[in-house]
Hints:
The protein is α/β, with parallel strands linked by helices. It has helices at 21-24, 44-47, 85-93, 105-113, 123-130, 160-168, 172-177, 180-193, and strands spanning 6-14, 68-73, 97-100, 117-120, 138-141, 146-148, 153-155. A 7-stranded mixed sheet has the order 4-3-2-1-5-6-7. The radius of gyration is 19 Å and the shape is globular. GO terms for molecular function: 3-isopropylmalate dehydratase activity.
Amino acid sequence: MEPIKVHNGKTVALMNNNIDTDQIIPKVFLKRIEKTGFGAFVFDEWRFLKNGDPNPEFPLNDADRQEATILVTGDNFGCGSSREHAAWALKDYRFRVIIAGSYSDIFYMNSLKNGLLLIELPQEQRDALAQLPADETIQIDLPNQVVRTSTAEYPFAIDATWKHKLENGIDDITETMAYKDEIDAYEAKWDNIYA
């Protein structure tokens, strides 16, 4: 998992509340078994018109927002089903950070485990971020737990365990492999018993 310490990026705002996982990645695209390739289908039903053309009214299609790596959004983001594909799709699209008012618990955990930094900020601060010009780069400073713009700083809270994992790129497998010697010793003990 790629570590996140200080991320500098541009924003795109999608300020709807209650965006569910089926809107993030429609179920028709869940046939893949890899974690990659889902980014092309993120928000598919909103990003594209029925004829397949990009929807000119959808924020992610704005020509000046194509470099955005930070999504600013509404409350209860990632509600609905527990599909981990939603986190895969957002990350594969290019997002590194999501800033919302709140998250579904399962989506929140799936995202953290896949290296997405999820930040909760109040409505007023998110509204200010949503109004930033497309060419403004903001800074997400995870060690100091602050979102910085050219004119403001917004502190955020994060569980210390998840902060450590994100800063150091530690996923579940990496964490397990820290105990490799103990695992090998345990397996060797049972190999000897049944030899």
